[in-house]
Structures are given as C-alpha cells and as structure tokens.
Amino acid sequence: MQFMLLIHGNERAMMEATPTDATGMTPDYAAYNMALVKAGAMVAGERLRPTTDAASVRIRNGRTEVLDGPYADTKEQFGGFYIIEAPDLDKAMDWALQCPASRHGTIEVRPVVQG
Question: Most CB atoms within 10 A, among 23, 32, 33, 40?
C-alpha cells in the first residue's frame, strides 16, 4: 500500500538548514533517504521550492482568483513529500516518525487511493 508523507514545518528554518552533500541534503535526510531505499519503501520524494515561488488558483462564483504564495496562511508550510510503500498505516507512521522533519515540524500521513 502506498502512503504520502506530507512534510509541514517552519519554512525559514528549513531554508536555513545547511546542506552538506552534492544532492543538497543534510546528513540526517541523506540517512533517512538511504534507509527508505534499503528497506524498499521509497517510491518518490522531493523538497519543494519556497512559498515565495508559489501561486494558488481557485474559482469562486464563476470568477478565477489567483493568489501569490500558498493558499493557507499558517505558521507551518508544506515543504516536501515522500511517497512510500508500507504494509499498513502503523508502519507508515513509523517511517514518518523517523523523518528528520518530525523533530521540528509535522508529518501528515495519508494513504494513496489505488486505482
């Protein structure tokens, strides 16, 4: 079963983290990625560009609205994601707890609808 781990955290702190390898990852994320790969759980994962590069669109009452930045104005921003394979929600939660962002942000774990 596939799960998406949505990483929410303080964008400023995420942007200030100093990458130390050629991929631009910090050592804790490099280790986490390697653990996912070795376990056969990694499907995909990406870090997102900052919210200053984002836009949101919606239609309300037949009118198109374009907003600069993310839709939600919150203290935590959506900063990246992983799509993983796990046998059940409990194992997916275990992987989320191992993600470095769980120490300073929030990881939302959601099952992917399989079609």
Answer: 32
CA distance 77 to 70: 8
Neighbouring residues of 107: CB distance < 8 A, sequence distance ≥ 6: 5, 6, 7, 8, 96, 97, 99, 101
Residue 59 corresponds to which tokens in the numbers above?
A: 């239609």
Q: How far apart are CA 91 and CA 51, in angstroms?
A: 30
Q: Summarize pLDDT for 37-46 with one digit per residue, the tens.
A: 999 999 999 9
Q: For 95, what's the count of Cα atoms within 13 Å in the CB-facing half-sphere?
A: 32
In sequence order, the β-bridge partners of residue 55 are: 68
Comparing CA positions, the residue from 14, 3, 2 lying closest to residue 78 is: 14
C-beta neighbour count of 36 within 10 angstroms: 20
Task: Among 12-16, 37-41, 97-101, name the one with the lowest average pLDDT.
Answer: 12-16
**Domains present along the chain, CATH in parentheses:** 2-111 (3.30.70.1060)
